[in-house]
Inverse folding.
């Protein structure tokens, strides 16, 4: 395959096949996967020998030993010394194995062996991961529509919300995943909006936060899931009369929520799960910022409740070197799922700096090329199976596949907030989450990541973590709070 | 015949079979007969809101097969409290479960509810320490430990010594640093001053500086020092003497920590007269000491205004 026109700056006129022959002859290394030690792209600065092991330390601990081990398992892949027999593109970077990953996700939606009993309470996640990952790969999921509608019907409880399965207690995570999966096949009419609103009212806490289920733990996952449901289904912002939070003087779902999120920012600058002082963690940073970004414009609400410079610094430090992916916490290891939780959050962070911040005009604060290289070289499962994994020494699963792909989408595309967009409609609906625009990075930028045009992945909405057309679909689905709210006004 | 359908003590229950919504469910799990049967009895029990001794047996059975089943845990807790069961016995059972299912949210929420109800934290701190011996950074375990300290006022019951043991074992354990911050500063609302008190602050700065001597590239103590200055409302320049030990612009080839260089850049940016030097520090990070974050360091240079552009 000859290089196409778009990449002339990098690939020159060399014919790819000839080049492979030439290298094989030169190196004379007989076993597969070891002969492609040269790349058309120069080795990026964070992977050159002088950047490795810059600060050797005598004092070794469990943390530093684990870190050294992961670096050793990733470096041969990152440098192309061990390609694991993944097919390479003209930049000597593995292709995204679209067909294999799609097959892996389709299989996850089929019949599952009994070991999956451990996921019996989390089955809606499997629907969401499968659908979400497939759409990033450009696949349609509409063929699952009627099966999904049937499967989730017994999971919806008469008193509101969805459980992980038939007869299971309603839970924020299960409800979130069911609602988003239904949205992706345009079937939100199967959600009982009135009862889910009543149920969410029971989860709102006096401190502004939300529990994951009645009597279950309270953390920022609850707030994010609740606001996803409120804005996707256009539920009234008023708390239902039965909400216990009303006894504490709260009247709306967003009451005290910003202050609650403020308390989650720690001494490190990152964001923890719950008060009083959970450790800063990438997933909770996404959930906190995503929640705020549903309530108001990011440049208004994020700096209002969070110390943005401290948060930016913490987020930037989570990108690991030399791997290029993200770790979830300080002094933890790279893991592909944080490609979304931290990689995907950069759009929100950059929007938080404001529409006119000169420092970020047309620039990124993070290293997209490093993330893409990690995902393509280290996170893809080699062999027939497909799927993406945390790191080379782990096995692929739906969770990592979906969030690796979502993070890849954040790297290959630009998501920008339209500051001109309305944050409320005339009925008071929260609209800030609907003001995002998507655009692929320029060809040159993509080539600089070592990715061919055919390696692009779809858009993933930075707040809803779903395709943009699905978000547009539910924005229009319930233009008004479609049921009358009896007695919801405070007395 | 299954275990429950053949048992006389369950004969009054008509099990509620699993409804999968139709013949061709998505992500259909091949449930074992044992699991399927136990769940069908649980659905029936829950539909009747029965809280009895046999519910404890049934929930234990299901948890053995699927410890991530939040519904079963929540229903078990409700049953324990309704029956006023022996909560100490419950904790012993949960101890075994916790060790085999370390990454499980439900166990820790359950433990939290049981211990709260019991009103005693006896033995809890040492149990938590055993769990952290298995996984020193387990998020749920550390969150639970915080709750224990706050709920039972254990601030001065050996908590600082515990943190120091954990950091002695691994000075890079950021979860332990986070707990230290909590122990030092968690009572501000109750009027007990943390690092806003000069003596406490000096002690904490000293502790972090000693940790840096052992491992200068460890981000945790650097972040800790920054956190102290931010919370105390002090300029980062307060740390200048410490910083230049690890990153000195007059010896650009001998930088011992990228985090020191990062802090040095912020220290220099505080004074108009040294902003040009801050640019040098950020350039060193972008080009030599931390190239993966080049974009971020460039952004920081942009914040310095005119100087950076010069």
């Amino acid at each position: 395959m000859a290089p196409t026109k778009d990449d002339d700056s990098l690939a020159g006129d060399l014919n790819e096949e000839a080049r492979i022959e030439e290298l094989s002859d030169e190196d004379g290394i007989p076993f597969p996967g070891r002969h492609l030690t040269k790349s058309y792209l120069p080795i990026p600065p964070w992977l050159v020998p002088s950047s490795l092991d810059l600060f050797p330390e005598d004092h070794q601990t469990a943390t530093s030993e684990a870190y050294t081990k992961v670096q050793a398992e990733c470096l041969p892949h990152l440098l192309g010394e061990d390609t694991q027999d993944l097919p390479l593109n003209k930049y000597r970077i593995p292709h995204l194995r679209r067909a294999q990953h799609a097959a892996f996700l389709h299989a996850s939606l089929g019949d599952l062996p009994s070991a999956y009993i451990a996921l019996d309470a989390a089955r809606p996640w499997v629907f969401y991961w499968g659908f979400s990952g497939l759409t990033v790969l450009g696949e349609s999921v509409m063929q699952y529509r009627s099966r999904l509608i049937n499967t989730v019907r017994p999971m919806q409880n008469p008193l509101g919300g969805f459980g992980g399965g038939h007869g299971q207690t309603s839970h924020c995570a299960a409800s979130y995943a069911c609602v988003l999966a239904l949205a992706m096949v345009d079937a939100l009419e199967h959600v009982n909006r009135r009862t889910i609103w009543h149920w969410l009212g029971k989860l709102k806490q006096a401190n502004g936060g939300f529990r994951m289920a009645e009597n279950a733990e309270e953390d920022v996952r609850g707030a994010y899931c609740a606001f996803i449901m409120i804005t996707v289904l256009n539920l009234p912002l008023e708390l239902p009369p039965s909400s216990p939070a009303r006894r504490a003087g709260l009247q709306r779902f967003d009451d005290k929520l910003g202050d609650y999120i403020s308390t989650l920012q720690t001494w490190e600058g990152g964001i923890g799960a719950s008060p009083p002082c959970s450790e800063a963690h990438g997933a909770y940073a996404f959930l906190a910022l995503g929640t705020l970004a549903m309530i108001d414009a990011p440049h208004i609400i994020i700096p209002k409740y969070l110390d943005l410079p401290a948060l930016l610094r913490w987020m930037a430090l989570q990108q690991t070197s030399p791997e290029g992916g993200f770790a979830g916490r300080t002094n933890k290891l790279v893991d592909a799922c944080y490609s979304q939780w931290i990689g995907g959050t950069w759009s929100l962070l950059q929007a938080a700096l404001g529409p006119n911040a000169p420092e970020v005009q047309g620039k990124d604060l993070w290293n997209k090329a490093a993330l893409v290289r990690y995902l393509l070289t280290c996170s893809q499962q080699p062999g027939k199976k497909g799927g993406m994994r945390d790191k080379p020494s782990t096995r692929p699963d739906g969770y990592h596949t979906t969030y690796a792909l979502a993070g890849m989408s954040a790297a290959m595309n630009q998501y920008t907030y339209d500051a001109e967009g309305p944050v409320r409609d005339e009925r008071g609906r929260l609209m800030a989450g609907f003001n995002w625009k998507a655009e692929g990075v320029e060809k040159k930028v993509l080539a600089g990541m070592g990715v061919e045009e055919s390696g692009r992945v779809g858009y993933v909405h930075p707040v809803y973590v779903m395709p943009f057309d699905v978000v547009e679909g539910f924005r229009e689905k319930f233009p008004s709070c479609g049921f009358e709210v009896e007695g919801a006004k405070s007395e | 015949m299954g275990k429950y359908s053949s048992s006389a003590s369950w004969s009054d229950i008509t099990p509620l079979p699993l409804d999968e919504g139709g013949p061709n469910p998505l992500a259909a799990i091949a449930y074992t007969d044992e699991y399927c049967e136990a769940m069908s009895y649980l659905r029936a029990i829950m539909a009747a809101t029965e809280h009895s001794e046999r519910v404890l047996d049934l929930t234990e059975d299901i948890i053995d097969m699927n410890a991530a089943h939040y519904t079963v845990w929540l229903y078990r807790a409700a049953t324990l409290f309704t029956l006023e069961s022996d909560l100490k016995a419950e904790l012993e059972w949960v101890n075994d479960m916790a060790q085999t299912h370390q990454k499980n949210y439900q166990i820790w929420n359950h433990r939290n509810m049981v211990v709260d109800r019991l009103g005693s934290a006896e033995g809890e701190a040492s149990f938590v320490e055993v769990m952290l011996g298995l996984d020193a950074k387990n998020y749920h375990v550390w969150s639970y430990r915080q709750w224990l300290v706050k709920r039972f006022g254990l601030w001065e019951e050996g908590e600082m010594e515990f943190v120091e043991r954990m950091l002695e074992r691994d000075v890079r354990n950021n979860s332990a640093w986070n707990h230290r911050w909590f122990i030092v500063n968690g009572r501000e609302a109750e009027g007990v001053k943390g690092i806003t008190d000069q003596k406490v602050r000096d002690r904490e700065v000293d502790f972090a500086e000693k940790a840096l001597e052992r491992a200068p590239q460890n981000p945790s103590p650097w972040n800790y020092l920054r956190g102290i200055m931010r919370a105390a409302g002090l300029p980062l320049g307060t740390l200048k003497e410490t910083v230049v030990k690890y990153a000195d612009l007059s010896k650009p080839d001998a930088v011992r920590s990228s985090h020191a260089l990062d802090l040095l850049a912020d220290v220099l940016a505080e004074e108009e007269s040294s902003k040009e030097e801050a640019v040098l520090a950020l350039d060193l990070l972008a080009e030599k000491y931390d190239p993966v974050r080049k974009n971020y360091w460039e952004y920081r240079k942009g914040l310095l205004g005119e100087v950076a552009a010069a």
In short: Chain B has a mean pLDDT of 95. The radius of gyration of chain B is 27 Å. Chain B touches chain A through 88 residues (CB under 8 Å).
